[in-house]
Amino acid sequence: MSLSFTKMHGLGNDFVVIDARQNDPALDTDTIRHLCDRRFGIGCDQLVLLTVPTLDGADVHVRFFNPDGSEAGACGNASRCVAKFVGGTPTLQTAAGLLPTARDSDLFTIDMGVPRLDWQDVPLSQACDTLHLPLHDAAACSMGNPHATIFGDASSAEALGADLEQDALFPERANIGFAQILSPTHMRLRVWERGAGLTLACGSGACAAVVNAVRRGLTERTCTVTMDGGDLKITWHADGHVLMTGPAVTVFHGTTA
Predict the structure, then answer these.
(1) At 85, phi and psi to the nearest 5?
(2) What is the pTM of this model?
């Protein structure tokens, strides 16, 4: 099956974007895994499938797939790439809800919605204080997908990420962020993404890290998050909505054999 695609990235978090609004290829798990493979396929942190929206107010329906074939509910970096791909200021329909977008020159802002803070909503496998989990004293929330943030040394990601992603506390697995607070308006972050491993950047992970840091009293509500691939600006507004601002880059267009 020949597929047209666009390779894009947000701070090095890279994506294969397939526009299926005219013809949905109905990709199966094995095909998604093959396309995401960096040696036998195109290679990416996530495959992004665009289809016709089904909700009023949405301009495009977006689905995010991890390299292992599992589906993610939200992806901040990919959402910025979709906004650039579609053009204008589209509203994205995702499993996490409707995500409005804005653009200022080469920077794209995504309204990532309101974080969910109850243990059932993360979700966790048992009742816990989501501000202090019984697991490395992490803080947890959902940004449309489950996140846990560990504050301290960001270099622990390789050593701890894989095991924590699959800890029994997270029935749907979790994205694990390792955050070092540099100042009230700046943090260093590395994220082990569920189904993808360590990536250069994670937009929803940056949002979750700022939400959890504000809840702990560690940062202000607007914070620059420095990841291996670059910086994102995250603002958790008083109305509960989290805004994420950063770049999106088109790398190349192609067609599979």
Answers:
(1) -60, -45
(2) 0.94
Q: Which of 44, 75, 141, 223 is catalytic?
A: 75
Per the annotation, the verdict on 75 as an active-site residue is: yes
Is 202 labeled as catalytic in the residue annotation? yes
Write out the chain's pLDDT in tens, 257 residues: 799 999 999 999 999 999 999 988 889 999 999 999 999 999 999 999 999 999 999 999 999 999 999 998 889 999 999 999 999 999 999 999 999 999 999 999 999 999 999 999 999 999 999 999 999 999 999 999 999 999 998 988 999 999 999 999 999 999 999 999 999 999 999 999 999 999 999 999 999 999 999 999 999 999 999 999 999 999 999 999 999 999 999 999 999 98
Which token pair is 250? Answer: 């088109």
How are beta strands 46-51 and 13-19 bridged, if at all?
parallel
Report yes or no: 103 and 89 within 8 Å, Cβ to Cβ.
yes
Catalytic annotation, pick one of 141, 202, 207, 223: 202
User: What is each CA distance from 58 to 89, 91, 118, 250, in whole angstroms?
Assistant: 11, 5, 27, 23
